[in-house]
């Protein structure tokens, strides 16, 4: 939509994910089932629509971690992005977003997110590390 470049539509949260990552695509499918808010709009970062809507976001940053953009143009990355998604949910699901304020939780969530994100191309759709050639015994 013209005039909203760099922002999600009103009342929405734009979720930019890596569509070339098996685990990321599976996670987005699960997120679509989990979402009870109707406030999420998904964008594959390599889709021309994503580049047109969010031209200021650099691909090298987007492939490093999940990004979400709100209707005000604020950008959230990694574990913080996941927390923003939780914060948009209704009921008990929204309550999960308050864990972010438990001392130490944000640090741990960010650390774990970065660890998994760094190996995401080595993971299957369920997030498990893909098996490598059997080691000699």
State the secondary-structure class: alpha+beta
| Coarse shape | globular
| Residue windows where pLDDT falls under 50 for at least 5 positions | none
What is the domain tally?
Answer: 1
Secondary-structure element order, N to C: EHEHHEEHHH
Content of β-strand? 5-15%
Distance between the termini: 59 Å
Strand tally is 4
- Overall mean pLDDT stands at 91
Largest sheet: 4 strands, mixed
Helix content: 25-40%
Q: Taking strands numbered 1, 2, ... along the chain, how are they ordered across the largest sheet?
A: 2-1-3-4
Brief summary of the model shown:
The chain has 137 residues and is of the alpha+beta class.
Notes on the structure:
- The chain has 137 residues and is of the alpha+beta class.
- The protein has one domain (13-122).
- 37% of the residues lie in helices and 12% in strands.
- It is built from 6 helices and 4 strands; from the N terminus they run E-H-E-H-H-E-E-H-H-H.
- Strands 2-1-3-4 form a 4-stranded mixed sheet, covered by helices on one side.
- The model has no long low-confidence stretch (mean pLDDT 91).
């Amino acid at each position: 939509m013209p005039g909203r470049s760099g922002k999600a539509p009103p009342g929405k949260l734009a979720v930019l994910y890596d569509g070339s990552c098996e685990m990321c695509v599976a996670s987005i499918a699960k997120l679509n089932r989990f979402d009870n808010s109707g406030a999420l709009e998904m964008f594959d970062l390599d889709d021309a629509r994503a580049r047109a809507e969010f031209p200021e976001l650099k691909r090298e940053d987007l492939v490093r971690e999940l990004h979400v953009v709100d209707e005000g143009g604020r950008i959230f990355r990694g574990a913080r992005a996941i927390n923003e998604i939780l914060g948009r949910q209704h009921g008990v699901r929204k309550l999960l977003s308050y864990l972010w304020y438990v001392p130490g939780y944000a640090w741990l969530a960010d650390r774990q997110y970065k660890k998994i994100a760094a190996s995401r191309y080595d993971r299957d759709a369920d997030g498990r590390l893909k098996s490598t050639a059997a080691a000699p015994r």
